[in-house]
Amino acid sequence: MLSFLFYAALLAAFFVAGLYVLDWFIKSGGRKGDENISLNAVFVAGVALTCGAAFVVIGIFTGSLSLLKWVAIALPAGLVATFLWRAKTASDNKRIALELLTEEELRVREAARSDPKNAAAWARLAEIAEKKGEHRKALDYLEKVRGLEPSPDIYRRAELLKKNRSGL
116 with 150: CB under 8 angstroms? Predict the structure, then answer.
């Protein structure tokens, strides 16, 4: 049983190290500078890393080529670890995006307060409120924009927002 735990810990260490290397590669602009590689690609790569690590680690330490039972154990463990890593990454990304949106909202709100006739600032506040899911606030901001700069686009946007909100 102790050797099984040792192998499992070693596999987990290889797997986590592989994910960090993959994450670093993506964020450093690998693949010709494409930083927007999907999490699904990372997931598939993580599964491949897990399988490869399982064969290498268990094969080296046991000297056995009958690795099927070990892969059957390692693969679900790797999938669970990858899923948890993806969930954490997605959660971190959402949190960071919300923080950036909140900071932008503060700056734009200050611009709108200093110049209440700035239709662009009120329109941006409406966009930010909509992204944050604050539909009532977004409609209020769009009403201000309609009062300052009536245009068919603003009317369509307000109507679309009303429909989306009522459809929820």
Answer: no
Burial degree of 135 (CB within 10 A; 0-12, 13-18, 19+): middle
In whole angstroms, give the CA distance from residue 4 to residue 164.
54
Going by the DSSP 8-state scheme, the letter that residue 65 receives in this structure is: S
Domain ranges of the chain: 2-93, 115-166
**Which CATH number applies to 115-166: 3.30.1300.10, 3.40.50.300, 1.25.40.10, 3.50.50.60?**
1.25.40.10
pLDDT (average), residues 8-35: 67
Taking the C-alpha atoms of residue 66 and residue 55, their distance in angstroms, rounded to an integer, is 10
**pLDDT, tens digit, 9 for 90 and up, residues 32-49:** 545 555 666 666 676 777
With beta carbons less than 8 A apart as the criterion, state whether 93 and 26 touch. no
Q: Which amino acid, 103? A: E
Sign of CA dihedral 148, 149, 152, 158: negative
C-alpha 114/C-alpha 119 separation (Å) is: 12
